[in-house]
Amino acid sequence: MLDVSREAGVSSATVSRVLTGSAEVDPKTRMLVLAAVEKLGYRPNLVARGLRRQASQVIALIITDIENPFYTAVCRGVEDSARLAGYSVILCNADRDIEKEREYLRVVEDQNASGIIISPASAHRTDISNLVARGLPVIAVDMALAAATGSVLVDNKDAGALATNHLIGKGCTRIACITGPAENSTAADRVEGYRRAIAEAGIQEEPKLVIYANYLEDGGYKATRRLLGLKTRPDGLFVTNNRMAVGALRALQEMGVSIPDDINIIGFDELPWALELHPYLSLVRQPAYRIGQEAARLLIACIRKEEPVKHVILDAELVARDRRPLAKARKKPAKATIT
Questions:
Q1: Strand runs labelled E in the chain
Q2: What is the pLDDT of residues 90-99, one digit of tens each?
């Protein structure tokens, strides 16, 4: 605020009155102050203005897609765990948009949250350096973030292999995979698991059977139409997130492809309504609610300095709903790995 007052040639008290609207200020003076604010890129610190306590009982949760049921369950887990510990939660939806995410990170910083749980829009472009520099704990979920204080993740490589092995067990020999953006580390890990499974089964990988899409319904729809347009169609399909699976199911229905008579399909995470229309849709399920609970517990422990930083790895679960029996079953017991 002192820099603004110097730039505008007015007192700090005048700057404060302009910014808070607490008293009448001459219009010309107001214009000078606002011009100085714009020039210097000044953002009022709500704590310094006394609108927040120095040690707030608020944590921020920034997620990438509020419409995805997986993140809805994560949010519920975070909120339930936080409330038990006496904390409130601010929810921000970044829509997988780096610029929107950056704006929310700035808002969180100004609001003086005690800590942040974030599902990063990007493992490489998400920037939490300002928060880390201030000593604020940051817990990453769904995707690893190098600068994060801690993380709660699923072993996506094993989960990808689990899904693919299920299709192999159903007798599929030409398995396609629709995954997320190429730069998304979670998508890359699930594809790596897929590739590992088909290699171990002695199946030759076909690059045209792996399609990178956008993690949304239209991406799954377009990718499935593309796969069904191949001269030799796949007999198995692994779709690496639930919203793309919605699009894939729509494409299969439009083209008259029956599940599981014409193709076996396995999704990733729950689709509550889809089971009504597709009772034979198998999936790999992440423990979304538990991820949220554990992330909140870790964050609050960091805030209170109760325990050292931890990185928790959880297993996904196979939910097999196919009406035809498996040729072989491969299901691992649930476990958590903490490092």
A1: 58-63, 88-93, 115-118, 138-141, 150-154, 175-179, 210-212, 236-239, 264-268, 282-285, 311-314, 317-319, 336-338
A2: 999 999 899 9
Helix axes 156-169, 185-200, angle to 10 degrees: 40
What per-residue confidence (pLDDT) applies to 49? 45
Mean pLDDT of the chain: 85
Q: So what's the architecture of 58-152+288-309 in CATH?
A: 3-Layer(aba) Sandwich (3.40)
Average pLDDT of the residues in 246-270? 92
With respect to CATH, is domain 156-287+319-338 assigned 3.40.50.2300?
Answer: yes
Cis peptide before 44 (omega within 30 of 0): no
Q: Which of 232, 221, 123, 230 is nearest to 178 (CA)?
A: 221
User: Which range has the worst mean pLDDT, 106-115, 204-213, 230-239, 283-292?
Assistant: 106-115
Residue whose token pair is 């229905």: 253
Alpha-carbon span 307 to 37, nearest angstrom: 41
User: What are 216-238's pLDDT values in tens digits?
Assistant: 999 999 999 999 999 999 999 99
Question: SS3 for 264?
Answer: strand
* pLDDT number for residue 252: 94
Type of residue numbered 76: R
Q: Which part of the chain has CATH 3.40.50.2300?
A: 58-152+288-309, 156-287+319-338
What gap in Å lies between CA 61 and CA 295, rounded to an integer? 10
State how far the Cα of 59 lies from the Cα of 44, in Å rounded to an integer: 20
Measured distance CA(75)–CA(23) in Å, rounded: 41
Residue 61 β-bridge partners: 91, 117
